[in-house]
Backbone:
């Protein structure tokens, strides 16, 4: 499958993150130190919206139970907790991103 356009660079003038939809899937797009990254927006634990979490450097923290994901790779960097019990959270999907001019694309078939 080819790359699909999902955003524009002008979307990141104020914010470092943006939530976009592609064929029913929500994707979290971030801009970190001038580069763009895309991962699934839905937390792999219980579906929290990662877009609603805090972005701290390369890490987005799920607002529901605190699991943290590296937005560059989709890898879990910290397991969240429910009360005092750690939850088991798998990595999330990341997407290849490319920029052409002012257009941002992802390739949904390649990670
Ligand atoms: S829903 Fe994200 S850590 Fe539980």
Residues:
């Amino acid at each position: 499958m080819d790359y699909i356009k999902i955003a524009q660079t002008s979307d990141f003038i104020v914010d470092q993150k943006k939530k976009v939809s592609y064929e029913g899937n929500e994707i979290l797009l971030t801009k970190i130190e001038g580069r763009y990254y895309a991962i699934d927006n839905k937390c792999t634990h219980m579906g929290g919206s990662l877009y609603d979490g805090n972005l701290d450097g390369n890490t987005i923290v799920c607002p529901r139970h605190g699991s943290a994901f590296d937005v560059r790779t989709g890898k879990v960097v910290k397991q969240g907790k429910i009360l005092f019990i750690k939850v088991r959270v798998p990595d999330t999907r990341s997407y290849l991103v490319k920029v052409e001019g002012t257009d941002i694309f992802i390739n949904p078939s390649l990670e």
